[in-house]
């Protein structure tokens, strides 16, 4: 495997102590530098799979091999420290990694500019909109220049317009930084806009039903969402989701 953060999952199952089986024999290869989305109904094991990739949860059987260093994780809730400024939140992970103060300040300024928060360094989280708080969460994760970025429905709580804008910004960040991205989402259109591949998972116990290659080149313009080809592929993914749910119900 490359030294960069490619991921290989082989026969991954997960059964919790209470007997609940979350995953069943998941095989999946995520090339270094790729962007992949996992879609499926609630409870199909998407988030469990993401945590296994991160090393936060161990599989019951099977294995997960990951290149590169420690991954960065972005959750649905930004989980910002309310007593810290925007700049202080952006520096948090760098402090834990013992960066020098000067290096932290320089890198924080860089990532805040990348996510459109330049000039807000002295503000506090409660003074930011929901979209700005999520941008700050992304900045904090990107500060360490991770090779692998894991995103667990980070845009679910914002309004539709803000969500579209954040998708476009996240896509550009991925193109610029070249990290391996793995996104969990319920939103098929979001998955298609951001990803090179969309993995459809069946209801619990989660397993891979089908992998769709997304053919649209990058960078992807906002107008892509309204194109007939985009709508047709979204329809195919949605139909596969519905069929997998009916078959397992």
3D structure, described in words:
The protein has 249 residues and is of the alpha/beta class. It folds into two domains: 151 residues, P-loop containing nucleotide triphosphate hydrolases (Rossmann fold); 66 residues, no CATH class. The protein is 37% helix and 22% strand. The chain contains eight helices and nine strands. The strands form two sheets. A six-stranded mixed beta sheet has the order 5-6-7-3-8-9, with helices on both faces. The protein has a three-stranded antiparallel beta sheet with strand order 2-1-4, with helices on one face. β8 and β9 form a beta hairpin. It starts with 6 loop residues before the first strand and ends with a helix. The mean pLDDT is 92.
How does the SSE layout of this entry go?
Elements lengths: L6 E9 L5 E10 L4 E5 L6 H9 L6 E6 L5 E3 L11 H5 L1 H5 L4 H14 L15 H13 L5 E5 L7 H18 L2 E5 L3 H7 L2 E5 L6 E6 L14 H21 L1
Parallel strand pairs: 3-7, 3-8, 5-6, 6-7
Antiparallel strand pairs: 1-2, 1-4, 8-9
Helix pairs in contact: 4-5
């Amino acid at each position: 495997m490359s030294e960069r953060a490619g991921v290989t999952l082989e026969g991954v199952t997960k059964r919790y102590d209470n007997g609940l089986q979350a995953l069943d024999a998941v095989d999946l290869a995520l090339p270094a530098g790729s962007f992949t989305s996992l879609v499926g109904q609630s409870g199909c094991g998407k988030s469990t799979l993401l945590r296994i990739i991160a090393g936060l949860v161990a599989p019951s059987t099977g294995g997960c091999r990951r290149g590169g260093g420690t991954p960065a994780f972005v959750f649905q809730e930004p989980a910002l420290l309310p007593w810290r400024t925007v700049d202080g939140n952006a520096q948090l992970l760098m402090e834990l990694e013992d960066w020098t103060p000067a290096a932290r300040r320089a890198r924080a300024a860089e990532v805040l500019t990348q996510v459109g928060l330049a000039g807000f360094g002295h503000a506090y989280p409660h003074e930011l909109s929901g979209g700005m708080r999520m941008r700050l969460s992304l900045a904090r994760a990107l500060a360490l220049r991770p090779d692998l970025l894991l995103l667990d429905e980070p845009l679910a709580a914002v309004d539709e317009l803000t969500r579209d804008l954040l998708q476009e910004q996240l896509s550009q960040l991925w193109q610029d930084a070249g990290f391996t991205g793995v996104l969990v989402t319920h939103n098929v259109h979001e998955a298609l806009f951001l990803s090179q591949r969309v993995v459809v998972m069946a209801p619990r116990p989660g397993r891979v039903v089908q992998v769709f290659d997304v053919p649209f080149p990058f960078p992807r313009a906002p107008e892509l969402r309204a194109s007939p080809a985009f709508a047709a592929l979204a329809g195919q993914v949605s139909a596969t989701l519905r069929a997998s749910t009916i078959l397992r119900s």
